[in-house]
Amino acid sequence: MQQNNINPTRRIWCAVPVYNNKGTVREVVRECRSMLENVVVVDDGRTDADLSGLLSGIDIKIIRHEKNLGKGRAILTASRYIEEQGGAYMITIDADGQHIPVDINKFIPLLDDKAPGIIIGSRNFDTENVPPKSRFGRKFANFWLHVETGVHIDDCQSGFRAYPVKYLNRMKFRGSHYDFEAEVLARAVWAGLSLKTVNIDVVYPEPEKRVSSFRPFLDNLRLTHTHAMLIGSRLIPFRHKQLVERPKTDFRLLRHPGKFLMMLLKENATPAGLAFSAAVGVFLAVLPLMFLHTFLILYVAARLNLNKIVAVNVQHLCMPPFVPALCIEIGFFIRNGQWLTNISYETVFTQFGDRLLEWLLGSLIIAPLGAVLIALITYFSAALIKRQVAANS
């Protein structure tokens, strides 16, 4: 680890956010304290036990929230306290016993003052009792992080992480629960920090013994809102505040058209990435954007790190006359309760004002339906091709 003239044991802290984990928290904290000199436990409004009593005899700092504010808020409370104490890095670990504290040693060599970033523990899922929803959630979260930042990591849902507190405390967040852990990675990349991963082991108890504070409906709703907010922020054509200077973009690849084309073809070329690229292309192509389709599709694809070739070319499926005519028919029916029986070139262009409104109304139905349909076709086609290529290699 790159160090200043400060005792490294004072610069690295372990933070344990706790909410109703009385069965596992003492052992987790005890092991963390054996790994690091400085450990702070944030009692996030627990109701199941007296945390001070549970952790008596262990030399740690306990900070209490009088009510449950969420895991994200607990992490930020710890981060601010650690910086006040002169700490530079915070390694967070869950209190439910899922993580193995000895893996803290894997994070320490990657802490670097010259290349500040967040280090995420990539969980080894080749173990027993891994819930199917965790496998799906991991892939789902990885996909959205790539869309929002262009960065791909193996496991952006892991709570075993190392943060540089100086930068974390200068960023603003809206999420305060599990959604914080998705938001912080996107905002960190936008601020110029790097994301690194380190392989860690994980322990999942049998389903009947598993204790989790994750509330599927409410927390998934929060995550959906967070990703929608991040996508919206990403589409705004303004540069986000930089905390770390980024390397300048290298445009030398433009001198080699063949290599540049191959880069574009491989861009976000997973089945999910291609499907989302196609969906965005179709959705925008159906809307009556009047000669701006290609420009807007390219802009959105670039901002969301999509496959630009797929997104731009799929719009040809929506070229006149069929799709606009279909939208106008549906829009006319919405306005008048009957179908437009005489639709022609003259009907459309001599009554362009009315037809444009009907085109817009119809496109609001056809665009999402077409986007979903083309996304499904693209996803399963790409997945099939990928399997065939893997089988033949």
How would you characterize this protein structure?
With 393 residues, this protein is of the alpha/beta class. The chain has 2 domains: 8-235, Spore Coat Polysaccharide Biosynthesis Protein SpsA, Chain A (Alpha-Beta Complex), CATH 3.90.550; 253-392, no CATH class. It has 16 helices and 7 strands. It has a 7-stranded mixed β-sheet, with helices on both faces. Helix 8 (179-190) packs parallel to helix 9 (216-235). The longest helix has 41 residues, at 352-392. The protein is elongated. Residues 3-7 have low confidence and may be disordered.
Helix coverage percent:
40-55%
Large-scale geometry: elongated
Question: How can the largest sheet be summarized?
Answer: 7 strands, mixed
* Name given to the CATH architecture of the largest domain: Alpha-Beta Complex
**Radius of gyration, in angstroms, nearest whole number:** 25 Å
Q: Which sequence of SSEs, written as H and E, runs from N to C?
A: HEHEHEHEHEHEHHEHHHHHHHH
Task: Please report the distance between the alpha carbons of the first and last residues.
Answer: 41 Å
**Helix run count:** 16
| Fourth CATH level, the homologous superfamily of the largest domain | Spore Coat Polysaccharide Biosynthesis Protein SpsA, Chain A
Strand order of the largest sheet: 3-2-1-4-6-5-7
How many domain modules? 2
CATH-defined topology of the largest domain: Spore Coat Polysaccharide Biosynthesis Protein SpsA, Chain A
